Amino acid sequence: GVARAEDAVCYSASGRFHGLCFSSSNCANVCQGEGFTGGDCHLLACRCSRPCPAKN
Question: Knottins-like domain spans which residues (predicted)?
Fold first, then answer.
């Protein structure tokens, strides 16, 4: 199906996670501490995720 805009996920590099990312759950915990909804390892880097801001 077609993804609705409010379902889109935006990714940002974690500002607090240092080193190579091997545990997505650890990355997610760091991201949640930064105010994101979650995170995962992508190419050995921790990336944080959150719903994209609504575009009017």
Answer: 9-52
* The CATH number fitting domain 5-51, selected from 3.30.420.10, 3.40.50.2000, 3.30.30.10, 3.40.1180.10: 3.30.30.10
Please write the tens of the pLDDT for every residue from 2-43.
Answer: 555 557 999 999 999 999 999 999 999 999 999 999 999 999
Distance CA 36, CA 30 (A): 9
Handedness of CA 18, 21, 22, 25 (dihedral sign): positive
